[in-house]
Amino acid sequence: MYVILVYDIEQKRVGKMLKLCRQYLNWIQNSVFEGDLTDVKLNELIHKAGGIMNKEKDSMILFKSRQEKWLEKGVVGREKNELDNLI
Amino acid sequence: MYVILVYDIEQKRVGKMLKLCRQYLNWIQNSVFEGDLTDVKLNELIHKAGGIMNKEKDSMILFKSRQEKWLEKGVVGREKNELDNLI
Predict the structure, then answer these.
(1) Which of A7, A60, A62, A55 is nearest to A30 (CA)?
(2) For residues B87 and A83, what is the distance between their CA atoms, to the nearest angstrom?
(3) What is each CA distance from B76 to A9, A13, B2, in whole angstroms?
(4) What's the pTM value of the predicted model, to 2 decimals?
(5) Which class for B80: exposed (0-12), middle (13-18), buried (19 or more C-beta within 10 A)?
(6) Is the complex ipTM more than 0.85?
(7) Using the beta-carbon criterion (under 8 Å), do A65 and B62 form an inter-chain contact?
(8) What is the pLDDT along chain A (87 residues), one digit of tens a residue?
(9) What is the largest CA-CA distance in chain A?
C-alpha cells in the first residue's frame, strides 16, 4: 500500500517521530513522508507513533492508496536532497 | 482532480501562502491542504504560489489523484476543528 504521512508534532517530540517515520518511509519534506508499506508494517508504525504523540496536541494524517500509480506527485521549489532519504 | 498540497515555507512567507492555499483548498493540518480542483484552478494556484515562494528555500509538494475514492485518509491524534476549514 502506498502511504503519504504528514505530522504536526510539538517540537520536543519531533526528533523521535522523525526517527520512527524514517524507519518505515522516505522523508520527502519537513514533516512529510511517503512509501510503500504492508498493512502490518503500517499498523506497527501507527502503534509506535501513538506511543510518542500527545494525542491532545499532536496530529498525524495518513493518506493511503492501493496503488502508487493512482497518485501523481509534483514538486515546486526546492527538492530535498536524495541523500536525505537514505537512512 | 483531488489534490493534496503540503508546503515547507520560511516563516516570513507563510501567512501569504496560507491565505492563498485556503482560497483553493481545505486546510487540514499545519501546512497541509486538500480538495478538488480543476486543472485550470490548480495551475492558477501553482502560478500564484510561485510568486510568493523563494524557490531556492521553499518547497511545495502536490499529490494529485483523478478520483478522491482512490485515497483513504486517516487521522491519529488531534483533528483540526471543522471551523478551520471555513474561509
Answers:
(1) A7
(2) 39
(3) 11, 15, 22
(4) 0.84
(5) middle
(6) no
(7) no
(8) 899 999 999 999 999 999 999 999 999 988 999 999 999 999 999 999 999 999 899 999 999 988 777 788 888 988 765 445 444
(9) 36
Instruction: Give chain A positions within 8 Å (CB) of B80.
Output: 59
C-alpha cell at B69: 475514492
* Pairing, β A32-36 against β A26-29: antiparallel
* Chain B hits for A72, Cβ within 8 Å: 63-65
- What does the alpha-carbon distance between residue A19 and residue A7 come to, in Å, rounded to a whole number? 13
B7-22 pLDDT per residue, tens: 999 999 999 999 999 9
In single-letter form, the type of residue at position A20 comes to: L
Residue of B76, B79, B84, B85 to mutate, interface with A, max A Cβ within 10 Å:
B76
- B21-56: buried (b, 16+ CB within 10 Å) or exposed (e) per residue? bbebbbbbbbbbbbbebeeebbeebeebbeebbeee
**DSSP E strands: which ranges in chain A?**
2-8, 26-29, 32-36, 59-65, 72-77
